[in-house]
Structures are given as structure tokens and as C-alpha cells.
Amino acid sequence: MAVVASAPGKVLMTGGYLVLERPNAGLVLSTNARFYAIVKPLYEEIKPDSWAWSWTDVKLTSPQLLRESTYKLSLKNQSLQSVSPSQSRNPFVEKAVEYCVAAACAKFVNKDNKDALHKLLVQGLDITILGSNEFYSYRNQIEARGLPLTSESLASLPPFSSITFNDEESYGKVCKPEVAKTGLGSSAAMTAAVVAALLNYLGVVHLSLLTDDQEQKGTADLDLVHMIAQSAHCIAQGKIGSGFDVSSAVYGSQRYVRFSPEVLSSAQAAKNGIPIQEVIIDILNQKWNHEQTKFSLPPLMTLLLGEPGVGGSSTPSMVGAVRKWQKSDPQKSLDMWRKLSEANSELETQLNMLSKLAAEYWDAYKYIISSCCKLTSEKWIHQATEPSQQAIIKALVGARNAMLGIRHHMRLMGEAAGVPIEPDSQTNLLDATMNMEGVLLAGVPGAGGFDAVFAVTLGDSTSNVIKSWSSLDILGLLVREDPHGIALESGDPRTNAITSAVSSVRI
């Protein structure tokens, strides 16, 4: 019986760089772009002598990359050994498999559970991973088909299209060919989806199907998925990041404060030969002190992403440069971080205020949003005739100003550290976007650079913004906010009538 789980991609609206250090918070929106993992037995029936096996087979298929990898999994110490050429390996899925199987072995102590687990494992694991088109850049394919650079062209591509590699020069250096991505956190969403599917398949957690009116039940199960996914992701990427991308992949849109890196000290020490099961027991017993509080955009607002077509950025190298600058100029960097942190808090305050005002004065809120969506921001102030409307306008303008402050400090930080956090090309695009009718704010998500930019639009202004972007050679992506985190799916997304939430997006 196949288990299918999915996890969303993310957009970090505020908290770039700051979120690496406690107690700074980041606002992260999860999206309708989802990564899917399908787990089923590799062999239909168990061979009579299988009880004596000490190894089982694992097959990993990534149809979009036309890749298939095979592994041997040791049932004694849960380690994976690749039997495929090295270029087709996927360290994120490898760690996810090892950690999930180790977690199952650690959790199931009575004989019946152990036997059932052993029976499942000797049938082998057949894992397929698929990412929504929105994780990847299809700009080249659209141009190659002679189609216009529009959202409609993007929507006409088949779901889970094969992915091309960009081997062009970036920053003037020729890099090894890599997948052209849009910066939605594909490795975190993929790791979370694989962990959720595997833990569910092995009977360690019982996640639920996600319908619009229902949140995941059972936070203990989600917490377990989060701990394993966070650990696997950190160890696979070779460093302990802030973890906001994995957290949003598991729990959905949120205000996030990172965990203390020490919770993963045993996983880092595992390289010295500590058995994986001991590592996992230690990780699960640690005090995970991350904070994730519910947060999503106020009503009648839409998250948009536009791809400028200059390729993504290398987040680790940009983070490294910022850290180096912090060490070299501690006083100036501390001052700048404080100002950035204040601007981030201000944006959060204004967005929460707008959600509150929407709940208390719905008619006034609806009226203001529908008026402002047709106007540029300097004309908004003339739309308010009564106190509740004035309060709503004040919060809208406050959110805009906070975003301008965030961008200003991010640019200064990039200049000081010598990295393109908001490069000139992005500055021009973001300024033009913020001057469009009905645009509340625009920015570069996360660590910045040349990834897709984001905008938050009011009411019905979305399609006009996308059209204006098109005229600037910016491809409007089909990504929208979807506050839901990890979920089980009712079947293979390739065969479901509606392959993903993206297909229902109004362009």
C-alpha cells in the first residue's frame, strides 16, 4: 500500500540573516508549491528466507531529473550504501531514510511491532519524489517553445515537467551545471515530505489528509516529523542552518525563532561512528526550543512571486560573507542588525494589526482594500472617511514603510559585506513594483540575491501586477500563500484529477 505525503515550499518575508540567531524571529509563508514523496514496498511478496536477511533494498526515483538510485540498507545499523553512480545520489533523501528507519527501530520495542517493522523493511522501500513546477525555473523551456513569458504559458506546462540544468555563467564564474530553482526551499520541502511519508508508512506517526477546513491533528506526530526532518536536512547539507524552511514545510506559515544548534550535536558527532539509532534517540530526547507561532497574511491580500530570469543565488556563500563582515566590524554590524530587527518587528506588528482590524471592522476593511487596490499608495490616505477606515489605512502605510526600512538596511548590509543582497537590478524592479496600483509591499525573500522577488497585493490588483511584470520581462509564477504544512495525499499526484493546488490558481 503506497503512502503519499506532501510538504510546502516557503517564502521568508522578514528575518533574512537575523533568523540565524536566537531570539530573532522570521515571518515565513508556506506556499501552494508542494513536494511529494511516494513510499511503497519494492517487492510484493516476502521471500521465505527473508527473516535471515541483514540487508534490504531501497530504490529512489526522481522522474523530473530522469534519475534512479539504488541502495542497500543495513537492517542491523540502519546505514545506507549506494549501489549507483555518485552523481545520481541524493544526500537529503539518504539521511531521511536512515533517520526514519532508526526512529522506527527506536520506537518499536515490543516483539509484535518489531516483527511488523522487519516485515515491511525486508520488502524493500520504493521511494519516488516529485516537486511542483513552481520550485524550478521553466523560463528557458517557455522561450524554447516560442511561448510568451507569461503565467498562462507557465500554467500550460504539464505538471511535474522534467527539469533542465543551467550551466550558464553566474557572477562571471562558470559553475557546475545545476538545477535552475526559484528559491522556494525545495530541499527542505523534499526532506520533510520524504520523512512524513516514511514515518507514516512504517507506522511511527499517523498523519491526516488535509482538507481546507482542517488542520493537522496530533502535534506530537508533527513534532516527531519536524525533529527527524530538521536533523536529516542539517546533516545532509553539512551545516546547521536556522531551520525556518523545514519548520514551515512541516507546520505551514508561521512566525519562527530558531532552535539552539546544540540539539544536533550528537548528529554531528555521528561521523565518529556512534550508531545511528543512538543518535536518533538522543535527538528525540533533546529539548527542541524553536518557536513557531501561527501567522499568515491578512485577508484579501495575495502573495505573488516574480522570476527575473537571472538565475538563483548561493545562500550559503552569501551567509558566509555576512558572518565574516560581522566578525570584522562587530559594532557597526550590531547596530545594523538592531535597526533591521526593529523594522522586521514593525512589519509584523502592522500585518497583525490589519488582521485584527479585518476581524473587527470587516465592512470598513473590505471597502478600503477594494478602493486601494486600484490606486498607488500615495492616494490611499484620501480613501478614509471614518476612524476605523483611517486605522486600516494607517496600518497599510505602516506596513509599507516598515518594508522600505527592511530593504534599506538589507541593502546597506549587502554593501558592507560585499554581497548582492538587494542587487541594483532587483532594487529597480522592487521600486517599480511598489509604485504599482494596489501593491502593499515588495522585497527579496530570505537571504536575497537574484532569486524570485515577492510582492503582497491588495484585492483585485493581482492580475494587473502580473501584466506589468510581464512588460518588464518578469515571469509571474503561480505561487500563492497556502498556510497548511505537511499532509498525507489521497493518491499519486500525477494521476489525481487535480494534480496540485496550483492548477486552481486564477491568473
From TrEMBL:
A single GO cellular-component term on record: peroxisome
Keyword set, alphabetical order: ATP-binding, Kinase, Lipid biosynthesis, Lipid metabolism, Nucleotide-binding, Steroid biosynthesis, Steroid metabolism, Transferase
Pfam families found in the cross-reference section: GHMP_kinases_N
GO biological process: farnesyl diphosphate biosynthetic process, mevalonate pathway; isopentenyl diphosphate biosynthetic process, mevalonate pathway; steroid biosynthetic process
GO MF terms, alphabetically ordered: ATP binding; phosphomevalonate kinase activity
InterPro entries: Erg8, GHMP_kinase_N_dom, Phosphomevalonate_kinase, Ribosomal_Su5_D2-typ_SF, Ribsml_uS5_D2-typ_fold_subgr
Stretches that traverse the bilayer: none
SUPFAM superfamilies on file: Ribosomal protein S5 domain 2-like (SSF54211)
GHMP kinase N-terminal domain sequence ranges: 181-252
E.C. number(s) listed in UniProt: 2.7.4.2
The protein's annotated pathway: Isoprenoid biosynthesis; isopentenyl diphosphate biosynthesis via mevalonate pathway; isopentenyl diphosphate from (R)-mevalonate: step 2/3
Domain of life assignment: Eukaryota
Top EC class of this enzyme: transferase
UniProt-listed PANTHER family: PHOSPHOMEVALONATE KINASE, PTHR31814
Record family assignment: Belongs to the GHMP kinase family. Mevalonate kinase subfamily.
Record's protein name: phosphomevalonate kinase
Species name: Momordica charantia (Bitter gourd)
